[in-house]
Q: What sequence folds into this?
DNA sequence: CCGGTGAATATTGCATGCAACATAGGGTCA
DNA sequence: TGACCCTATGTTGCATGCAATATTCACCGG
């Protein structure tokens, strides 16, 4: 077991627990900590250079978010998402993104339209340049996040953040389709068109269908390429 | 300030933090702790007869659930839900209960139908007997919870639990309509009919409309009778 | 009578100690 | 060689200590 630490030391300002949480979440979401990896509170505390209290708190928040699971007397481990999990995740996410798009359509103004267009164009560049998967996921997350922000419903935002966090985690293990970014971008554009035309029903439908298609493509990808067997914390690179 | 404790001592078995969380949540949801009440970790720890660590953890979970808010350097206080909060809450809840009903319809079997009918009949007795509000809320919560259970989607369940928790909290402050229980029961029956007839669309619609009507009735109640003034736990009235 | 100032108070958040406990691994015995 | 036991290690979860800090209340001056 290499001493290669998956998390970085904490600066040491205020709210160590918060910083530890962000660091851990980042490590999980960028796949530096992989599903199945152990989250030992003492070990992480040592690596971050802080005591166990804030780390313990951070790990528990991760568990609460569904990004880690608690194995009795074995500590916490980064959550493993199976195909069925993802399916159920996306069924829920579809109706919530639909609602978000609907609400956002009602509250859209010129500023927000510009921001959305901006994001779409940047996403376009990323896709055109064939940049890395990580970057694409970031754009995808950012786009949906902005829609939520426009929708301006904190309860919806909170629920969707949790759902999307788990989905984000799943993408690392499951998403292997090379033209997925292009398709996603296309569907993002369709949502944009519906929203800017003021058609709430169409926006709702477009967002729901986007997530539904994502779910279907994910299922197909998994079905075709059953995933090279990879142990918890082994060394494989993302293809 | 009366020494009247709002929370009970903890038995002392295993997982004190969990027990403390349940105790606190119960106190909040049954209105023994009211919106605005302070949640002092040292005080609660003393009342429960345990140390601060598990209590701190419990309070943080409450905050994460939206049942409490963190006021800087003043400790945590039981969350205050205003009318707008409730409206936004129910907008989200409507689509999620709709999805739950839809999924439940697809997975319904004879056993679950019997359980649902059982609950409805008990609810009927409660309404007929004109029992207390608390009991009615319990029935309402139980009914929706059972639908979720049948729907069998853990992510949907988790999200809805959080949403319903906040809604539950809101009801104490806002629900003053005497015939609300009767109307709710009636709408529960309608959802039941749609589900047992196997019509997923109708079930979805019925559940969504139920929550929407709930939201509208709540808004009307609040608009007509602005609430008998009752302050946090002491003197102030809600502005 | 009222406003301002200072000290006492109570809070949080982090660090650390410690007992209980399950697991893993090695060594022993049949 | 294979199964079993027993110890060593790692973990959790709770208790407690402690510094930093904002609030509150009383008291004093105007």
A:
């Amino acid at each position: 077991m290499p001493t290669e630490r998956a998390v970085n030391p904490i600066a040491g300002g205020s709210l160590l627990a918060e910083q530890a949480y962000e660091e851990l979440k980042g490590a999980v979401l960028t796949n530096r900590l992989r599903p199945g990896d152990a989250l030992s509170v003492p070990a992480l505390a040592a690596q971050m250079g802080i005591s166990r209290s804030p780390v313990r708190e951070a790990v528990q928040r991760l568990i609460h978010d569904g990004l880690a699971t608690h194995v009795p007397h074995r500590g916490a481990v980064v959550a493993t998402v199976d195909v069925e999990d993802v399916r159920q995740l996306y069924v829920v996410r579809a109706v919530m993104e639909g609602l978000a798009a609907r609400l956002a359509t009602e509250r859209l103004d010129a500023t927000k339209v510009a921001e959305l267009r901006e994001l779409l164009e940047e996403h376009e560049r990323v896709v055109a340049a064939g940049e890395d998967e990580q970057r694409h996921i970031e754009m995808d997350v950012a786009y949906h996040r902005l829609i939520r922000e426009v929708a301006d419903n904190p309860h919806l935002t909170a629920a969707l953040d949790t759902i999307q966090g788990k989905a984000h985690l799943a993408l690392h293990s499951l998403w292997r389709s090379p033209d997925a970014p292009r398709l996603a971008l296309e569907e993002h554009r369709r949502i944009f068109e519906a929203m800017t035309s003021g058609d709430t029903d169409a926006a709702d439908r477009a967002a729901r269908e986007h997530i539904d298609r994502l779910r279907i493509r994910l299922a197909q990808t998994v079905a075709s390429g059953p995933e090279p067997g990879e142990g918890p914390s082994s060394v494989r690179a993302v293809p």
